[in-house]
Write a structure and sequence with these properties.
It is a single chain. This protein is an alpha/beta fold. It has nine helices and seven strands; from the N terminus they run H-H-H-E-H-E-H-E-E-H-E-H-H-H-E-E. It folds into two domains: 191 residues, Rossmann fold; 35 residues, no CATH class. Strands 3-2-1-4-5-7-6 form a seven-stranded mixed beta sheet, covered by helices on one side. Helix 4 links the parallel strand 1 and strand 2. The longest helix has 16 residues. The radius of gyration is 17 Å and the shape is globular.
């Protein structure tokens, strides 16, 4: 049975995901570029690596950017949403990276626990997952599939939406800047408030990551509610 956070990424949502991602996150491209730069700095420029992309569906930007910078990296793209994974893999194929990318329709927990991966990314996923336990389980599933001291890039919304009215107003203006009218903006605000609540603070992110078996995360990017961190398996 699919969870609600998977079911909402239906074909219609997948079709609009790419354009909306870049509006919702100011600095979308910069975040992905810096994520790749952080991984490359950790693993070594020109290294050979097998990278797990958890929640790969949608833009596949993690693979497109990393695949360009590091030609010896291969990828395993995992996503439980069939339309989102199909969209991602179409972009991977268009970029000529299909031969370096294996797709897996399912959860990280479905993968063998063989610590085969040199690195992993979890970008834009955790704040869609409801509840502390489910978030922790996903991070633990990642930890036991990574080699010792392997890096993880974690990125997503933190801070409780309702507790930050100024940031919510700025986020609404971001949509207005890109042509959204009052009714559309109201609908988008309503949708984000009805969704799963992100972790309440950067400290809460750090505590969850450490509980899952990683080192204390180091932030390298932020934008309104969004943050991006690098951490390593202990």
């Amino acid at each position: 049975m699919k969870h609600a956070h998977v079911e909402k990424f239906d074909p219609a949502r997948a079709a609009e995901f790419e354009a909306q991602s870049r509006i919702a996150l100011a600095g979308y491209e910069a975040c992905h570029e810096l994520a790749t730069c952080m991984l490359s700095a950790t693993l070594g420029a020109g290294s050979t690596a097998n990278v797990l992309i958890a929640g790969a569906g949608g833009t596949a930007n993690e693979i497109l950017v990393a695949g360009k910078l590091e030609p010896a990296w291969s990828f395993v793209a995992v996503d439980p949403s069939e339309p989102m994974l199909a969209l991602a893999m179409s972009r991977v194929a268009a970029a000529g990276l299909a031969h370096r990318t294996k797709q897996v329709l399912g959860e990280v927990g479905d993968l063998p626990r063989d610590r085969a991966f040199d690195a992993a990314t979890l970008i834009g996923v955790l704040h869609h997952i409801p509840g502390h336990t489910a978030k922790l389980d996903l991070l633990r599933d990642l930890a036991c599939r990574l080699k010792s001291n392997a890096p993880l890039i974690l990125a997503g919304n933190c801070l409780a939406y309702k507790s930050e009215p100024l940031l919510m107003a700025a986020w609404a203006n971001r949509w207005r800047m890109h042509g959204a009218g009052p009714q559309e903006i109201e609908a988008k605000l309503g949708k984000i408030l009805q969704g799963a609540e992100p972790l309440a603070s950067e400290e809460a992110v750090a505590e969850l990551v450490e509980e899952a078996g990683f080192t204390r995360p180091k932030r390298f990017f932020s934008s309104l509610f969004w943050g991006a961190w690098i951490t390593h398996v202990r």
